[in-house]
Prior knowledge:
Number of helices of chain A: 15
Distance between the termini of chain B: 9 Å
Strand content of chain B: under 5%
Helix content of chain B: over 70%
Order of helices and strands of chain A: HHEEHHHHHHHHHHHHH
Largest sheet of chain B: none
Radius of gyration of chain A: 25 Å
Largest interface: A-B, 122 and 108 residues
Oligomer: heterodimer
Radius of gyration of chain B: 26 Å
Mean pLDDT of chain A: 87
Strand content of chain A: under 5%
Order of helices and strands of chain B: HHHHHHHHHHHH
Mean pLDDT of chain B: 85
Low-confidence stretches of chain A: 1-24
Number of strands of chain A: 2
Strand order of the largest sheet of chain A: 1-2
Number of helices of chain B: 12
Number of strands of chain B: 0
Shape of chain B: globular
Amino acid sequence: MAVSETLATAQPAATPTPPTSSRRRRGRNAAYWLYLLPGAVLFVLVIGAPLVGTLYLSLTKWSGIGDPIWVGLDNYQHLLQDDVFWASFRNTVWMLVAMVVVPTLLGLLLAAVLFDVIGRRFKPRTAAALRAAFYLPQVLPVVVAGIVWGWILRPDGAFNSLLDAVGLGALRHDWLGDPGTALPAVMAVMIWVQIGYPVVVFMAALQRVDPELYEAAEVDGANWVHRFRAITLPQIRPETFVVALTCTIAALKVFGPIFALTRGGPENATNVPSYFAYYTFFKKLQVGYGSAISTVLTLIIVVVAVVFIWMQARSERRDRGF
Amino acid sequence: MAVTLTPSTAPVAPRRPVRDRHHRGVSRWVVLTVVTLAALAMLVPFAFMLLNAFKSPGDYSSGGPLSWPTEFYTKGLRTYWTEVNFPLKLWNSALIAGSVAVLGVAVSLLNAYALGIGRVRGRLWIVGLFLLANMLPQEALIYPLYYVAKQVGLYNTQLSVIIIFTVIQSAFGTYLLASVMGTFPRSLLEAAALDGAGKWTVLWRVVFPNLRPTLAVLLIFFFIWTWNEFLIPLVMLIDNQTQTIPVALASLQGDRLMDAPTTNAGALISLVPAILFFLIFQRTLARGITAGAEK
């Protein structure tokens, strides 16, 4: 199992304990279960049971009042023919581009430049200040940031005024109100939100790397591109995995920014599964159908997470030459 | 871990031609300029917000979003402050995020003690389960939680949100602390056991003091994550008495009251606490952000 391997690598082999009678050892370990008890009870109440509840509801028709009616796989058959459902998953792919692909690549480049060029040729404080500017959007309530961006991108908002001011008034546009530009506009906001996370993680990772490596490479005449490819990338591969995984999960779950910017509109151009599920639950009161959407999204996330962790464990084993 | 290049004991570098060094001096300034411009572009939305938060509606309609205000107009801020009862929202957010941070760390510590140090059977599967649970989309839990909360009278109470996020955050905390405790020096534990200390004593006298830095990072993370949460508070908290700051601002979106200065002033004071945490905890965050990424 992937998780077990990842964790196993984090734990050195147990030191052989002095031989005790096996019954006493079992008794010793059993006491630890008591420490898991509060966590386990809470876990079952707040995560386990509701998850099973959602799975069950996805096989029923229910408005939230009265008793759910069992309909088997009906909801799932409807989903497959539902254009909105497919549109929401198409948009998720674009969210992955905006929240995983672009931030990870840009973040690698920025972190390397900040660490290797600016951090080493200017005062460290300069690099730290620049890093803070990129990271700032990450600490804000994303909904509040979304509301500000929504105002900036309005037809009479600051972005259009800026275009006017630099003589590009011809490009004025209702960025979030036009189905053709709403999705790219939301993607731009998401890149802005997300970029700081990889930058900070990668910069911290680079601090682990032995500076002598860079110095030796420089002495050998390796230029910046060589150093980036031969040292930076391989050294921070573990962090790259973690960043890609957490950003992917965040992109699949994205809700707040969509709620604040577009409510999934115009004409579902920016609808995503999580907003679609929320809307189906609480605005259309189709609990069964909403549960089916949530279940599909959950399955996708679980599969993605397991695949990522398995790949990470495999690459670690390869590096150690197993 | 990746293969490390062993630095060869390289011969002394030949002196570089002067042209190259000169070129290098210029190019680093070019790089600095480009990165600084990108960083400034990141801050432009904040500049727009500041510029318009204290601008009167008259100035706004005549000069537009980019004009310099003719007066320092605070009515937008005052309107928002009183209309949404901002101090109460601040208290709700602080109460929820603070309780979740403390309770979440406590639950994570107990769980991880059993998994990382107690090494109970099947611990790897249990930790994996916690990790997956933390990744679940909240839509997969929200309707049953909402329904049950209504049945048991917890709907529209801060307590419901506190309980839910304590569990969600501690799922991550358990995963992280279990891997940290897995590398805890066994000799310390054995020495304490020889002195006759029980498990409870070992947890609080040996493990807890050693993990304090990691727990502090977790505490801050849980606080900020919970502070910024949106979906579950949006569903669970429906009136002015219980709502958190982000939900209060979002539920006023499109309201007649929210003209440009009020919207920007409202967003501004909603962001102030987050920016304050950021400044206070920046160093802790920079240390801790990789805690999940490092082994």
